[in-house]
Design brief:
There is one protein chain. The chain is 44% helix and 0% strand. It is built from 5 helices and no strands. The longest helix has 14 residues. It is elongated, with a radius of gyration of 20 Å. It starts with 12 loop residues before the first helix and ends in a 6-residue tail after the last helix.
Length: 80
């Protein structure tokens, strides 16, 4: 017995594959490598795992431009 607490958690082969892909992604492995490891025929299938890598997603965030106080009334001009 492993004594791993699996209450309220999914378990089985899919959970192991998901865990592997998530760890590989967090370690900086490119999607094509993860795809090949999981046996996916298309990297688009593997992109479902990108939603769990919050640290990498933070690097993709765009700055929000400030909006003039009357932007909603005047048609939405941005401050520069």
């Amino acid at each position: 017995m492993s004594k791993i607490d699996i209450k309220n958690r999914k378990c089985g082969p899919h959970a192991l594959r998901h865990s592997l892909a998530t760890r590989m992604l967090k370690q900086g492995q490119p999607l094509p490598v993860i795809s090949e490891t999981l046996g996916h025929s298309d990297t688009q299938i593997t992109t479902i795992y990108t939603s769990v890598d919050y640290d990498s997603l933070k690097h993709c965030a765009l700055d929000v431009l400030p909006i003039k106080s009357n932007a909603y009334i005047s048609g939405g001009e941005y401050d520069s």
